[in-house]
Amino acid sequence: DPEAPKKPVGGAYGIFLADNREAIKKSLPADAKITDVTKEAGKQWAVLSEEAKKPFQDRYIEKSEVYKKESEEYKKTHVADDDEEPAKGGKKAKKEKDPDAPKKPAGGAYAVYLADNREKINKSLPEGHKMTDVAKEAGRQWKELSEEARKPFQDRYLEKSEVYKKAKEEYMKKTGKTGDDEEEEEEGVEETSPAKKQKASPKKRAAPASTEAPAAKRGRPGAKASAAPEAPEIDSSVMTEATGLNLHVALKNLAARPDVLSSGKSHKELLEALKGNNGLVNKAKASLLGA
């Protein structure tokens, strides 16, 4: 939700980087990449004493408290979003996430561009327009940008990714968690694939080996194969564009859906639907199929 309060990311290190970015940038060679800045910041942060880190940690805690209060107020006046969409059988697929876990930046350079230009685009559209119209217009504008014009947004996305990596490392040290559960949805995989479900089923793996040949294996008549249907090969030009927008995983996910496959929609239409729905697979599918 673009109107929802934004959670502070990057932890205390993120604040340290924001404070020292320009000074570090000036200390590096003129042709230094944005990743060189974050690497140098990471080195400086690593050698700081706990006492020196404390002011940044305190500021992050303060920002987090402000976010929590704003988030509580926001939830009182807004309905829940797609985080809990109905799963099979009518039950909600609840995902219990650690609110303190660092959030991986999603959407690639395009998401940075959208965040910067959302308000301006919002004002340029007719009154009463849909929220998806903003993303569609942003997608159209982004497509027309030259590689040179896109570079600042790509650099900022790389920087956000580096900050996330550093914050995740610290989070893992403190909690011993891997953060895999938090990353799954952010990568565009909104549902566990049948292949993953099969791997995650220890009962099936532990079943005693049958003495019969595979062809003689008993099963229910008409039972579906456990393997997930393979998605068709994505058009190379569309996949290149999707990769640049960090939507390649979501595109593969969407293209593999049986109802999307049977609809005959082109890969370009699928990508446009994802761009118009902020990379959310289920929303993109609904817009494509009119559900």
Q: How would you summarize what this structure contains?
A:
By secondary structure, the chain is an all-alpha fold.
- Poorly predicted spans: 80-88, 181-219, 221-229
**What is the terminal-to-terminal distance?**
20 Å
Number of helices, counting only DSSP H or I runs of 4 residues or more: 14
Strand content: under 5%
Order of helices and strands: HHHHHHHHHHHHHH
DSSP strand count: 0
Q: Which outline best applies? A: globular
Report on the biggest sheet. Answer: none
The chain-level mean pLDDT equals: 74
User: What would you report as the Rg, rounded to the nearest angstrom?
Assistant: 22 Å
Helicity level:
55-70%
Q: Given the helix and strand composition, which structural class is it?
A: mainly alpha
Question: Topology of this protein?
Answer:
Elements: H1 11-27, H2 34-47, H3 50-77, H4 108-124, H5 131-144, H6 147-175, H7 180-186, H8 194-199, H9 202-206, H10 236-244, H11 248-256, H12 258-263, H13 267-276, H14 281-289
Helix pairs in contact: 1-2, 1-3, 1-6, 2-6, 4-5, 4-6, 11-13, 11-14, 13-14
Describe the structure.
- The chain is an all-alpha fold and 291 residues long.
- It has a domain of 142 residues.
- 62% of the residues lie in helices and 0% in strands.
- It is built from 14 helices and no strands.
- The longest helix has 29 residues.
- The radius of gyration is 22 Å and the shape is globular.
- About 20% of the residues have low confidence.
- Keywords: DNA-binding, Nucleus.
- It comes from Polarella glacialis (Dinoflagellate).
